[in-house]
Amino acid sequence: MTRTISLLVFSLFLFLAAAAQNVAIRDSVVVGIIDSLVVEEKIELSSSTDMALYAVGTKIERISPLALERGASLTLEQLLKSESSLYIKEYGRGMLSHLSVRGRSSAHTALLWNGIDISTPTMGQINLVQIPLYFFDKMTIHTGGGSTLYGNGAIGGAIELSTTPEWNNGVGGDLTLSAGSYSTLYSGGTFRYSSNSFTSRTSLLYSSSKNNYKFNNNTKPGHPRERLNNSAYYNSGIMQEFHKRFKKLSQLSFNLWYLNFNREIQPSIPLNDTPENYASILDRSFKGVIKYEGRVARVSYRIVGAVSEDREFYKEDIIAGTKYFGEVEAQYSVGTLTLKSGGTFQLALPKGNYFDLGVKERRGYLYTVARYLPPFAKETLILGAGIRVGEVTNGKVPPMPSIDFKWYPYRRGAHNLALRGSFSISSRVPTLNDRYWGGVSSYLLSESSTTVEGGVDFSRSGERFNLTLSTSLYSSAVENWIRWLPAGQVWRPQNVPHVTSKGIEAQLKVEGEWSRLGYRAAANYSYSSIVMDKGLWSEDPSIGQQLAFQPLHSFNSTLTIERDRVSLFTTISYTGRRSTLDIFDLLPSYTLTNIGGEYKGILWGNNFSIILSINNLFGVNYQNVKFYAMPPTNSLLTLRYFF
Asked: Apex CA 271: angle with CA 265 and CA 276, to 5°?
């Protein structure tokens, strides 16, 4: 099967290449439709790492630089809640927080830093509250089956975080200080130096919170008001980057980060006053990447080496994993055809009391992707295709092909209407915990997801008004979904035979100017139906029901109004009702409202900003996960000074 699909895709690439030879070759130019406009742009060195170029038929959302700058003292979890309708499962403020895209598990979304998967090698996922936004200045959300582009685990999609090197700016940086409710403190500092051929960025941060907010204890008579115990957290970290440019269109980069995240484990509401059950957990992570990239004629290339080490300390247990990663890729452009091929290798070594000595896992992948504008379509049609195949120690990896298109039936001036579609097969190999925790689970199969989706994008631009509207419909089926289920006195991973996910996503963005006011508004809606069609036993009452902790409806909207140096903003988010592991036990829906304001000024010849935000304005009493208290009204004041 793998060989057949590979031959089919390779034949398609040969056809595209032959067709492209009939098109006039333009040196150093790629023709593409980006942001609904046909443009010609010079290939930059970093373009070889941008997989979003090949995501023709799926939705790509780039978080605005303004949102990233305003949220510098926040975590990735907090930004996703305010800027998207993606569902995040939270066990309290600043506690364990996992992302769910289209009803999938957190291990079904790849989280990438400058193209490198940063999920822990043991769990195959990462706690979102550990990821500080302060380290990054670019963020992209790719929704849809993406294993062809991003590799293992991108069944629901991928989130890419990156930093962009600056050149010829001399010395600069910023200082960021925040203080808020529950003794929440944040401090961060960044120092940059850049010349024509060398740039360096050093960022340090420290954040902490007692996190001792009050809540209504609904497990006691009368629902008394109590203060939360054992819920403090501390996070410190450093990120260092060096970039060196050479005369022959090449660049050497070195990046590293270190994070030390220590948190008390928030007790469930019934155990809030039982100190004998209190515990804490410490997570330490180190990641280092060295990358060399360049360009020769029409070929751009990239060579990457990376190491990642994650350690988790819980009571007397240590769960650790080390991951070594290597990648080589090349991108070739001729006329309106762009091809990229490469290979990756990964070695993972788990450590801990529940792993046998000497356990190791090797994974290897080869991939090819293409993007093509047929000359007969007069730059109104984009085609994409790709395939990724791989091998893993003591396991099998399904092939991961994809076919995409985007067609512009109407384009007149700044008005554009596009139709898009995609078919993809994605997969996820069982994690080290799945396969080796407490022994070898050799019976486990890799998950495989087949996704079909289509969408409509419309954009309209004017002198004082811009509008974009996007809708997507999708249907996907996951075979061999891995879930941990009770097996006697212990829990074991099992392959659930078949899970179906169907849904609708819609996004509206409007920005413009009215009188002397500037405004930006956005709304996101998601309908996600995810149902287990076949269970491990035919009498399972969960068959045909929405999976636990997955809302059917979610909504998010933002509005920003600006005048001169002052801006006001608000966010309204809605999370629909969810069931617990008991499908008949429903958690009620809730709506949260956040507001804030920002003032930008000049001090000592440099820019500064003051941001005040108030979260859960109306003090809604809610639980994201049953019996885990969430905070009432709270505030945060942030000062940023740029030099």
From this structure: 75
* Phi and psi, residue 436, nearest 5°: -125, 0
Structural domain count, the chain: 1
Greatest CA separation for the chain: 79
Radius of gyration of the chain (CA): 25
Q: 464 and 512 in contact (C-beta within 8 Å)?
A: yes
Q: What is the token pair recorded at 408?
A: 């512009």
| Mean of pLDDT values over 385-394 | 95
What does pTM read for this prediction? 0.88
Ranges 23-27, 365-369, 385-389, 390-394: which has the least confidence = 23-27
Taking only the tens place, the pLDDT of each residue in 72-82 is 999 999 999 99
The two three-digit tokens of residue 393, written as one number: 């120690």
Domain coverage including residue 606: 2-642
Mean pLDDT to the nearest integer, 606-617: 97
Beta-bridged to residue 139, according to DSSP, are: 161
Distance between CA 294 and CA 422 in Å, rounded? 31
Domain with residue 555: its CATH number is 2.40.170.20
Return the percentage of the chain with pLDDT > 90, whole number: 78
Give the whole-angstrom CA distance, residue 231 versus residue 374. Answer: 58
Report residue 161 CA to chain centroid gap. Answer: 7
Helix (H) / strand (E) containing 12: helix 2-20
Query: Could you tell me how many helices (H) and strands (E) the chain has, helices first?
Result: 5, 35
| Predicted local distance difference test score (pLDDT) of residue 49 | 57
Burial class of residue 499 (count of CB atoms within 10 Å of its CB; 0-12, 13-18, 19+): buried
| Dihedral Cα 307, 366, 368, 125, nearest 10 deg | -50
The confidence score (pLDDT) of residue 610 equals 97
**Is the pLDDT reported for residue 632 higher than 90?**
yes
For the stretch 461-513, pLDDT in tens is 988 889 999 999 999 999 999 988 877 778 889 999 999 999 999 999 999 99
What are the C-alpha distances in Å from 261 to residues 286, 335, 365, 543?
12, 49, 32, 39
Tell how far CA 410 is from the center of its chain: 32
Q: How far apart are CA 626 and CA 634, in angstroms?
A: 21
Indicate the SS3 state at residue 10: helix
Percent of residues, the chain, with pLDDT higher than 70? 92
Q: Quick one: pLDDT at residue 35?
A: 35
Q: How far apart are CA 315 and CA 416, in angstroms?
A: 58
Phi and psi, residue 428, nearest 5°:
-140, 125
Lookup: tokens for 560: 């920003």
Contact of 242 with 165, CB cutoff 8 Å: no
602 and 586 in contact (C-beta within 8 Å)?
Answer: no
Residue-level length of the chain: 643
On average, the pLDDT of the chain sits at 89
**Is residue 331 within 8 Å of residue 45, measured between CB atoms?**
no
Kindly state the helix (H) or strand (E) to which residue 20 belongs, with its residue range.
Answer: helix 2-20
